[in-house]
Design a protein that fits this description.
There is one protein chain. The chain has about 150 residues and is an alpha/beta fold. About 45% of the residues lie in helices and about 20% in strands. It has a single domain (about 5-150), classed as 3-Layer(aba) Sandwich (Mannitol-specific EII, Chain A), CATH 3.40.930.10. It has helices at about 5, 20-35, 40-55, 110-125, 125-135, 140-150, and strands at about 10-15, 60, 65, 65-70, 75-85, 95-105. Strands 1, 2, 3, 4, 5 and 6 form a six-stranded mixed sheet that branches. The chain is globular and about 35 Å long.
Length: about 150
């Protein structure tokens, strides 16, 4: 599964406004709901917050991947955001998160969710990919960066 084929153009925010973790989660959920016309915003936010309470999804290297499974999701939905200033996300390396992929998927389907998390993890470990995303200034450029990395780091 390719991220470049899963994320909609409308699900990309290159200039997040949030400055705190809770604000970032709300902004990302709002982006996800708006891009995919999802009506259950509060239910989705609650699922994301509950998952975050178990363990921070700040995985380090400037990346956070808030994710949850919820019965209101009919399939896997992904959105992406950048915080140019960075947000304290209680990451395992104590670095602020600047790159955010948020995922929700149905509770009873694991395959796409796991594959998406694995793909993000595989790509993000490459400094060139992270730096390219941080320099990204448009949706087309975002997709070009992701497609190039998906081909290079299979």
């Amino acid at each position: 599964m390719k991220l470049s084929a899963t994320i909609k153009k409308q699900a990309i925010r290159l200039e997040m406004k949030a400055t705190r973790k809770r604000q970032a989660l709300e902004e990302l959920v709002d982006l996800l709901c708006s891009a995919y016309k999802l009506k259950e915003r509060d239910t989705i936010l609650q699922a994301i917050l509950q998952r975050e309470e178990k363990q921070s999804t700040g995985i380090g290297m400037g990346l956070a991947v808030p994710h949850a499974k919820t019965p209101v999701a009919k399939k896997l939905y992904i959105a992406f955001g950048i915080s140019r200033e960075g947000i304290d996300f209680s990451s395992i390396d104590d670095a602020d998160a600047q790159l955010f992929f948020i995922l929700i998927s149905p509770r009873d389907v694991s395959g796409p969710h796991i594959k998406a998390l694995a793909n993000i993890s595989r790509l993000i470990k490459h400094e060139e990919f992270r730096n390219s995303l941080l320099r990204c200034r448009g949706e087309k450029e975002f997709f070009d960066i992701v497609k190039k990395a998906e081909n290079k780091y299979r």
